[in-house]
Amino acid sequence: MRHVPISLYIDTQVFKRQGLRFDTNAFTALIDTFAKGGLRLLVPIIMERELLRHFLREAEKAANEVTKAHEAYPVNNLALVELPSQEELKTKCIEEMNRQWSSFKEHFVVENLPIAGNLEDVVDWYFEIRPPFSEKKLKEFPDAFILSALDQYYKQHHANIAVVGFDGDFRQACESRRYILYFPDLEKYIAAFQPELSGKERLPGDVDLTKPITTEDLTELKAILARGNQVTPIEIERVMQLLESRGTNYDYFFQNAGDAVWLDPLSERGYFINPPEAEQARDGHYIVPRWPPLEYLIRIFDAAPPEVMGIISALPNTNNLWVLEGILKIVLKADSPDALLRFSRFITTFIDNGRWGHEFIISLLKKPFIFDAQLSEVTPALLLKMVEFRRDPREQEKRTRRKDNPEAWNTSLEPVPRFNKWEYQQILEIGVRPLAEHEPYQVTRILIDAVASMIRLGMHPEDFEKGSDQDYSEIWCRRLDKPVRDYQDAKETLVQTLTYACEQVYDKAPESIHALDKALRNHRWKVFKRLRQHLYASHPNDQTLPWIREQILGHADYPKWEHHFEFQLMIRKASEHFGPRLLSEEEQRGIFDAILGGPSKEDFREWMGEQYSEEAFRQRQRYFHRMQLRPFAALLSGDVRRYFVELEGESPAEAVNDESYSPYGGVTGGTVSYRSPKSAEDLEDFTDDELLAYLNDWNEEHRDKDNWLVEINISALAGVFQSLFKEKIVPDGERLDFWLANRDRIARPV
What we know:
The chain is mostly helical. Among the domains are: 7-197, 3-Layer(aba) Sandwich (Rossmann fold); 540-663, no CATH class; 672-745, no CATH class. It is built from 37 helices and 13 strands.
């Protein structure tokens, strides 16, 4: 047996040979060798009752001898103090021996065992004449009961047992049991511990890290851990020796230990000092090793919060994501702003390398203390890092390609979120949106910065320096408040989360509306202008009225371009809500005159080429007027109103509504329709490579030669491709892998 058992059973015969005294050399050595609580003393009921019976007999014998000596000549002639009765002497002797027995037991962790474990086993041993029974000793039931109690103890605790005794049959029974180590006397038991107690016997350090040294080591470890926090100092020291071998013993301990009793011994031996770093292999990928001691710290945090927090605070910075995730778990368990403040450096690194763990990020965002006053600097920085985009991983390659060929089609920059698309969407929808309901303005400011940064990262420096507000958001985010397709783009999800947060400001923090409007104006991008118009459309009131008027009166494209969705919606709802308060008659006249003065005949003639006709222009003009006047319908009067009613009556079956103003909202729009150059069936006939090439290369937008109201353009091609993508490509895993892998090769926003 590799380890000397610390669960000790001392047979009654040993006590008898010591004269039922506990101050003998043997017992004194046992007490002096092992610290208090170091050993487990197994005390079966049968053994203790037998010992007490020996106490009784010894007390009767001593009382009788004292009484006889007191009555013998010449003692009986001496003037002595009157001797207590023999019965009183016996009682006092029993009390004294019981006191010494109790004092002896106090030095140990006493395990009281039942009368017997399994009585059927005892009966079987008796009839089969198996030890402790023999042909000459068929009445050894006390020893049999004790053995069955030891058997049961082993089954319950998986702990080996040391037995000290003299009886031959009892010894034979013990030696037939693998879990019992038999000693003929206490001196030999103490001697067996000397190498371990002196520290001279250490477990070897150069071992196979994938295996335990022996199965017995792991068995011993399991037995000790099963004690919970009721472990002895020797058991603690033994486990520390087992951990030195690392391997399976090391892993098993840190995966299963669940009591804080191990915290100090482990700390003293430096197990919580240096977590392993992630290492880059030769092929470029990273190896991220786990750190088992951290699993233990997470498990026992509730039992020792200050101690665990102190250990984590002392850790060096690390790039190991498993370690960082574990620290985040501890922050979540701590459930306090102090923990987040103390460990923000680790959480920042975890988010910065966000390859997994989005569910922990969401849990953190749901904590009520996330916007606590003492986190005024930490939380905004963490939240921005969660939602902001990173540079296109291939930016340098694309910059070089564009420099070599300014007309190259595959140089569009594609910034990406830190997490994969699905996880990023979950963080925004499950984590950030609920947070915006509680702290709308703070969350909105962070999201505004994230959107502005995302757009900036998607532009080449030379394009950014042109100062344009063009961000093509009407392509990659058709609706600011809801998705219009099953396959969402991460940029679209971020903008729609910003929209939701802004709406929360209007609904729950009206005192911050002015500051929000100013923050949106601070950025030049079109998406922020669209967002302001969306908010004004949803909240027409005295506060937004000046801002709405500013948008309407500052618009210069009434005769040139059809209104985009948010702009026309803002006009329509404001016109219906404010009525004549919205615009003076003079202001209305100027706008309506501008509308009726368009569109440009010259531009239309150039567009149509040889297909131009006066009738075609007249149809185009009347359709254009209808679309441009519709949002102002509540304000129209006189000749302009009669003209609008006339236009509406020309195509009653083709009603114009808000959706008619979508950037790419379907195939038709009023009397003008859009058509893809290829049908879905035609596109389906292409191979994936051919389809990709067609999407990138087709550039022949034109009007149908038989019907100028049918416009064949890229937007319609995009719509047909998206339908094909959803219905045919997404369900096909192999095809979907192709398009995801070649996403960067798609030159157009389809």
